[in-house]
Amino acid sequence: MPRDHAALRRAVVAAACAMNGLGINQGSSGNVSVRAGKGFLITPTALPCEATTPDDIVAMTLDGGHRGSRRPSSEWRFHRDIYAARPDAGAVVHTHAVHATALACLRKPIPRFHYMVALAGGEDIRCAPYATYGTQELSDHALAALMGRKACLLANHGMIALGADLDAALALAVEVETLAHQYLLALQAGGPKLLTRAQMGEALAKFAHYRPG
């Protein structure tokens, strides 16, 4: 099995296992990747994190090629397309976090109800239209929803968060799940009062050089 990028392989396994402990994923759903050289490393398909070793992490190229004894996550396409389109993306996390997924099933974006929404790069966190998992159509929808953003929801599916590295991507995923929970509670209480675009602009300016974690 290939043993290149040994430290990154270990970090991907650790990040995938951390998602369950952080409460942003369940079981073997979700996937994690990190940019590595001219390609990326991604978790394998249908393998629980506790059974995953560094050698199981799949090395992929940006043309979709892969090597190793395992097949890559079925969602490798949007990971690949994010790395190709976004030089700021050093890692990508996809989860089925409970509250973010609940909003995604309602096909609701997360609006500017709280200034921490700015952490995702804009005044809202969009919800991409539905497409079957693992398809190019889903990747195309995700890329559009991520334009100018570092996170998005996927209708009837889950969420994506990206960051400069694995720690940043994980931290943002946790924040998106927290915001989704808060927004759902606010909706149940009658709906939140949204911040103005000017107020969100101030938050965005403050967060321009902020790194969660």
Question: How are the secondary structure elements laid out?
Answer:
Blueprint: H1 6-21, E1 31-36, E2 39-42, E3 58-61, E4 66-67, H2 76-85, E5 91-95, H3 98-106, E6 127-128, H4 136-145, E7 151-154, E8 158-163, H5 166-188, H6 197-206
Parallel strand pairs: 6-7
Antiparallel strand pairs: 1-2, 1-5, 2-3, 3-4, 5-8, 7-8
Helix pairs in contact: 2-4, 3-5
Structure description:
The protein has 213 residues and is an alpha+beta fold. It has a single domain, classed as 3-Layer(aba) Sandwich (L-fuculose-1-phosphate Aldolase), CATH 3.40.225.10. It has helices spanning 6-21, 76-85, 98-106, 136-145, 166-188, 197-206; strands spanning 31-36, 39-42, 58-61, 66-67, 91-95, 127-128, 151-154, 158-163. The protein has an eight-stranded mixed β-sheet, with helices on both faces. It is globular.
CATH structural architecture: 3-Layer(aba) Sandwich
Give the helices and strands as they follow along the chain.
HEEEEHEHEHEEHH
Spatial separation of the terminal alpha carbons: 33 Å
Any idea what the shape is? globular
Q: Which topology does CATH recognise?
A: L-fuculose-1-phosphate Aldolase
Radius of gyration: 17 Å
Tell me the CATH superfamily: Class II aldolase/adducin N-terminal domain
The residue-averaged pLDDT reads 94
Name the helicity range: 25-40%
Q: Which CATH first-tier class would you pick? A: Alpha Beta
* Quaternary assembly: single chain
Q: How many domains, in number, for the residues?
A: 1
Spatial arrangement of strands, main beta sheet: 4-3-2-1-5-8-7-6
Helix/sheet category? alpha+beta
How many strand segments? 8
Q: Could you describe the largest sheet, including whether it forms a barrel? A: 8 strands, mixed
- What percentage of amino acids are in beta strands? 15-25%
Low-confidence segments: none
